[in-house]
Amino acid sequence: MKTEYDIVIVGAGPAGLSAAIAAAESGERILILDNNPQAGGQIWRAGPIFPDPELAQQTYRQIQTKPNIEFMFGAKIVAAPFTGQLLVERAHDSLNVTYRQLILCTGARELFLPFPGWTLPGVTGAGGLQALVKAGTPVHDERIVIAGSGPLLLASADTAKKAGAQVLYVAEQANHSTVRKFALQLWRWPAKIFQALSLPHRLYQPDSYVVEAIGQERLERVRLQTPKGIIEVECDRLAYGFGLIPNIQLGQLLGCQIKDQAIVVDEYQRSSQPQVFAAGECTGFGGSELAIVEGAIAGYAAIAQYEKARQFFAKKQRYQRFATLLQKSFKLRSELKTLARPQTIFCRCEDVRFDQVAERANWIDAKLHTRCGMGACQGSTCATAAACLFDWPLSSARPPLLPTRVKSLMSMTTCSLNQK
Ligand SMILES: Cc1cc2nc3c(=O)[nH]c(=O)nc-3n(C[C@H](O)[C@H](O)[C@H](O)COP(=O)(O)OP(=O)(O)OC[C@H]3O[C@@H](n4cnc5c(N)ncnc54)[C@H](O)[C@@H]3O)c2cc1C
């Protein structure tokens, strides 16, 4: 099955939706593809007890007035067999989607670093906990510890609290003075102050990090390094995350230039590849406001409305300054790189231990000798952890990007033969 569009946008988060609204002014045929079953990306996830936030509702209403925007959900991009073409796999079929312009708005994912006990049931990502709770996982009366780094910890604590959980501790690895300096700068972005004030901070403890998750069948307690020394907290869940890592695999596959683990773009969000734009957190993390502005610039630039795109430059600069402050303030401390013990699981898909990976020379060597990164998640957790812990260069992306049905791969072969 072949489907042709003028503009294809990958990712229906704030950046992708904003890009679509801008580009739709051209009247061209636009497709937004997303792996998720609904729009909203990471921040605008809704569920049984979490309605869409007002800004998301406004955005969806705007999209409804644009008949030239189509959505395709549950659609994962597996390969890019030719320039201007993507191989997309859905639950029951696969199809080749063609585009004239492509806008990558693939967002970011959490960075997980291994520590003893991190694979116990009851331990999830901080954003992962949010996603579970918003999707309806009951956490009422559960005792939850949240640990790691960055504002996502507070957002996660807020979501858990609203769902009736008892948040016992929010452990932020950055030190007191850095967090204080960060908070004192927030007056420059009033919306951010409002967000910060709406989140609980009584239990927020800088200079603290998780050193071990302990339990037999599942998590029973967490050992934390705090300013008062090591403490143990009994809990039902631990949600942790050490910041965000841009999702760049599709950009890598398309040959886009990558720097600092993000897709490199110019002022109009153009990547180094002709026809390919990128916006939002795949170009570096910086929050939803920056993602929306970058999406609008990419959307207008894709339809050659450069004057309209330029109208967003000042706003972009303002939120870019917030992104820079965020990255500076929540830099990871070196102790986090030494938490794993030799026997700690490093690749949970293939049950590979930390010592097996640590003795290898680089990522390819580790993969070939241990099967690390060759399981269901295709290294999305352990490859980024390896890059962070061992300073190994990022692995390159190869098709298929995700586990794929043989039938889908065959459609790629048929397509290549037809092209010849
Ligand atoms: C787990 C998590 C939770 C977060 N929670 C918050 C929060 O509560 N508050 C906050 O301020 N910020 C939060 N953030 C930060 C948040 O990601 C951004 O501020 C904002 O959502 C970025 O918007 P975006 O459009 O760039 O990306 P996203 O919102 O991440 O959207 C990217 C979309 O692209 C899709 N996608 C990616 N790759 C592919 C592919 N190959 N094929 C098909 N679809 C693909 C994804 O499914 C996703 O829907 C969270 C981040 C993460 C990772």
From TrEMBL:
This is Oxidoreductase. InterPro entries: BFD-like_2Fe2S-bd_dom_sf, FAD/NAD-bd_sf, FAD/NAD-binding_dom, Metab_Enz_Cyan_OpOx_G3PDH, Opine_Oxase_asu/HCN_bsu. GO terms for molecular function: oxidoreductase activity. Signal peptide: none annotated. Residues 5-290 form the FAD/NAD(P)-binding domain. Keywords: Oxidoreductase. It comes from Acinetobacter courvalinii. The keyword Oxidoreductase applies.
